[in-house]
Amino acid sequence: MRPWFGWTRRGIVKYLAQPHWRKWQGIILHHTWKPSLADWERKPNGGYWMNVIDRYHRMKGWKEIGYHFVVMPDGLIFVGRGLDKVGAHTVGQNERMIGVCLLGNFDDEVIEEPQWISMKYLLAFLLYRFDLKPTRLFFHRQFANKSCPGKRLVLTDIRMVVEKTLPDAIKRYEEILKEGSA
C-alpha cells in the first residue's frame, strides 16, 4: 500500500509550480460513484480511499491510479498520477487531458462544501497554471456513455463558478509562490 498525503490548496500550488513537461489541453472532471459520500462517512480517511481507488485501477490492468487528482469530501486534495504522466481516466483523452476526480456519487449525493471549495480552487489553479480557459473544462460524460461526474453536477454552473474563482485563485497562487521565494 502506497502512503498518500492529502494536500491543502497551498500544497497543491507548490506542487503545480514544479516543472511539468506535458502541454495539457484541458481538464476532465469525474466522480468515483463508489466509494460514495456514505462510504466516506463510515471511514473519513483520504489515504485509505486513495488505496481503494488505486487497487481497483490496478485490478483493471492499469499501472496505478488513473486520475491526476482526487478531491476528498473534507477538502483535502490528493495527487494520484503525477502530471508528468499520461492519465488513465477517459478513453481517447488521456494523452492531453488532466483527470480530476471527486470522491462521491453525485448522481444521488450532494457535494460537501469543503470539497466544492477545494474543487473550484484546484480547477482554477490548473487552468491558470496551464494557460487554459474555463471552456477547456469537461465532464467525463461528454466522452463516454456515463453520467460521470454525476447528474447533480452541471457543467455550465461549474465553469461559471471556476471562472468567478479565477481572479482570487490567481492572486492566492502568486502569493503562495512569493512566500516560497522570500
Kindly describe this structure.
It contains 5 helices and 6 strands; from the N terminus they run E-H-E-H-H-E-E-E-H-E-H. The protein is α/β, with parallel strands linked by helices and 182 residues long. It has a single domain (6-11, 26-177), classed as Lysozyme-like. A 6-stranded mixed β-sheet has the order 1-4-3-5-2-6, with helices on both faces.
Q: Structural class, from helix and strand content?
A: alpha/beta
What is the number of beta strands? 6
Task: Domain count, please report it.
Answer: 1
Mean pLDDT, all residues: 94
Q: What's the overall geometry?
A: globular
The description of the largest β-sheet is:
6 strands, mixed
CATH architecture: 3-Layer(aba) Sandwich
Instruction: List unreliable stretches of 5+ residues.
Output: none
* Helix-strand string: EHEHHEEEHEH
CATH topology value: Lysozyme-like
Helicity range of the residues? 25-40%
Number of H- or I-type helical stretches: 5
In short:
By secondary structure, this protein is of the alpha/beta class. It contains 5 helices and 6 strands; from the N terminus they run E-H-E-H-H-E-E-E-H-E-H. The radius of gyration is 15 Å and the shape is globular.
Structural topology:
Elements: E1 6-7, H1 9-16, E2 26-31, H2 37-42, H3 46-59, E3 69-71, E4 77-79, E5 97-102, H4 113-129, E6 137-139, H5 155-181
Parallel strand pairs: 2-5, 2-6, 3-5
Antiparallel strand pairs: 1-4, 3-4
What are the main properties of this structure?
182 residues, Lysozyme-like, globular
